[in-house]
Amino acid sequence: QQQVKQSPQSLIVQKGGISIINCAYENTAFDYFPWYQQFPGKGPALLIAIRPDVSEKKEGRFTISFNKSAKQFSLHIMDSQPGDSATYFCAASIEATGANNLFFGTGTRLTVIP
Amino acid sequence: DSGVTQTPKHLITATGQRVTLRCSPRSGDLSVYWYQQSLDQGLQFLIQYYNGEERAKGNILERFSAQQFPDLHSELNLSSLELGDSALYFCASSVGTSGGRDTQYFGPGTRLTVL
User: Fold this and answer.
1) Residues A12-28, mean pLDDT to the nearest whole number
2) Minimal CA separation from A78 to chain B, in Å
């Protein structure tokens, strides 16, 4: 059972465009929502994360929007660049218990065309 | 470079065999996590250790086991291997604090191929 649902599976965006990836969850106990970026042959690397006490977090060109009532969150990549081409995973965990294991979405393969 | 090291990078073995994957966490991190990444299952949490003790268990098969040693490195043992165990196995580490601010850093992974 997939605890975090992610869409789309793949995304092609022109350079300079906005990339949007969406995720949804059911477990209201989740209290930490990170996004990871993975390049081929590498391990996932933390990109940006949000906690449910805020509705938006921005770091450079990357923004997470969080809708607690809808149990949805999304990643926006502004001014997308070819170097952003990678697979993006949303995830969720329950930090309060100390068992911070991550439940990952299925991933979105982003391709930014020059 | 995340600071998490994993060995070996690649492993090719036959069905029915047993292998051991090794992970060294970042300096100062007490928690180690193991994840399996396959094409059909995505990234799945297997097990977490904190300072030598098992803290959480995910979808880990009974044929798989792990431990964390006093020097905090961890080993994942996979036995009676099946074709379906072929996957990338990632180790991640974190400080291990509860209640927030506990980023997991992933290693480069071990690619296991079972023939």
Assistant:
1) 97
2) 24
What are A26-77's pLDDT values in tens digits?
999 998 999 999 999 899 999 999 988 899 999 999 999 999 999 999 999 9
* Distance from chain centroid for Cα B13: 18
Which residues on A lie below 8 Å from B45 (Cβ)? 101-104
Give the integer Cα–Cα distance in Å for A55 and A103.
Answer: 21
Q: Find, among A52, A53, A47, A46, the residue nearest to A30 by Cα.
A: A52
pLDDT tens track for B36-58: 998 877 899 999 999 999 988 99
Instruction: Give residue B100's pLDDT band: very low, low, confident or very high (50, 70, 90).
Output: low
Asked if A68 is an interface residue toward chain B (Cβ–Cβ < 8 A), one would say: no
Cα B9 from Cα A108, distance rounded (Å): 25
Contact B77, A73 (CB under 8 A): no
**Cross-chain CB nearest to B106 (options A44, A96, A98):** A44
Q: CA-to-CA distance for B61 and B64, rounded, in angstroms?
A: 5
List C-alpha distances in Å: B86 to A64, A66, B24, B110: 34, 35, 22, 10
- Separation of alpha carbons B6 and A85, rounded Å: 25
| Burial classification of residue A88, based on how many CB atoms lie within 10 Å of its CB (0-12 exposed, 13-18 middle, 19 or more buried) | buried
Neighbours of B96 (CB within 10 A): 21
Write the DSSP symbol of residue B10.
Answer: E
B5 touches chain A (CB under 8 A): no
